[in-house]
Amino acid sequence: MSSTTSIRKAVIPAAGLGTRFLPATKAMPKEMLPVVDEPAIQYVVAEAAGAGLDDILMITGSNKKAMEDHFDSAPALEATLRAKGDEKKLAAVNKATELGEIHYVRQGEAKGLGHAVLCGRQHVGDEPFAVLLGDDLIDARDELLTTMLETQQRLGGSVIAVMEVPEENISAYGVIDARGRDKAEDRFTESGAEVVPVGGMVEKPEPADAPSNLAVIGRYVLHPAIFDQLEQTPPGKGDEIQLTDALEAMASKPVEQGGGVHAVIFRGRRYDTGDKLSYIKAVVTLAVDREDLGTDLRGWLKEFAADL
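That's the UTP--glucose-1-phosphate uridylyltransferase sequence above. Prediction below.
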């Protein structure tokens, strides 16, 4: 679904080392790990393009050339496929190059998500923009980013995506203070999504200290005032510049200064490809829904599960 807003720019931080997937990521960017037959990063770029964000900036680091090559044309490969008359594979190869205009900036040092976002300042300029993390895949059948874009245009400030998570998992996330949830005006969008004001945010709290069970996932629509805030944000947890810390500061500022933060509660399908077990689940879940793979895979899974 294309966005009806004027927001057109997206920033995709992709400079991480992918240490959780070593040795597979020793020579290959973690974003290029295949989810069935497309790299994880292509799902994210396709999501941005589907929401009308056709100007995409990737924040990269060393050892990321394969990612840039993937979204570039491949004349020799395309000519070979064309000569063979393999239009299906040719279309699949060209799909990545047709998603939008993609730019690249090096982060240099890995100083945290906040610093990665700050690297996009010159490209973004003075306009709202989206941030999509490559570890989080949102099912294309579920609406999220378009709702977030429209919410930002309606309410101003910044908008984040959150999900309800079990207490035992809460310490792996940034968590919002949503005590104003029941008193919020315009609490539901026309599509039925719940939007709540964010009173504060805590990065990876212990369960007993978590202000809610609403955890931040990897989708943001940010007011450009976030850049000035990030410039002033000292290193936090992990000695990194945390986007969570900057957003917490913005939450208490007036809308006229780009302040205010709202959260869209997402209840759809999300796949975490940053964790080995979750990555395997993502591959199986998406493959089961494929017309070319689903029937055979479901049959095999039933047989496999019966033998466990």
